Amino acid sequence: AFLVAMATTSTPAMAAGFVLTGWSAALFYLFVGVVNAFLGWRLLALDERARILTIWWFVITIAHTTLLAISPGARQRLREFQAMVQPPDAPTLPYDSTAFTIAMMVVSMLLLAAAIWPLVRNKAAFNTPL
């Protein structure tokens, strides 16, 4: 729901290492929000297809985060993106936040990998045949 709400703002988005603005950012937020809501709704219904799609969605998200973390060009665009979404009167950081950003990406990847585990372990709970 938060991502769908973000589609109504003029907040830039970061996708595949590129900064999206305007309508492209709104469409990106809308797409990601709708996919997340749909998968969550279908997981609650114990839909086997949603279980598999969610695992793939998390893997794609981990790959995207890895791309941002290891690609120097993507990291530079991420720094530019962070500057774009910062309020104009915000003080500049007295240190380079790259290490912190990468650490948070690693934490995110670990959390996503941990979220995959119950989907794999509880396969028998899902009832819709492929």
Please characterize this protein's 3D structure.
The protein has 130 residues and is mainly α. 68% of the residues lie in helices and 5% in strands. Strand 1 (13-15) and strand 2 (18-20) form a beta hairpin.
List the helices and strands and how they pair.
Elements: H1 2-6, E1 13-15, E2 18-20, H2 22-44, H3 48-70, H4 72-85, H5 98-121
Antiparallel strand pairs: 1-2
Helix pairs in contact: 2-3, 3-4, 3-5
Query: What is the N-to-C order of secondary-structure elements (H for helix, E for strand)?
Result: HEEHHHH
What integer is the average pLDDT? 84
Helix percent reads: 55-70%
Strand order of the largest sheet: 1-2
Structural class: mainly alpha
Q: How is the main sheet built?
A: 2 strands, antiparallel
Radius of gyration: 17 Å
Give the strand tally.
2
Strand content: under 5%
Concise account of the structure shown:
The protein is mainly α and 130 residues long.
From the structure above, extract its key features:
130 residues, mainly alpha, two-stranded antiparallel sheet
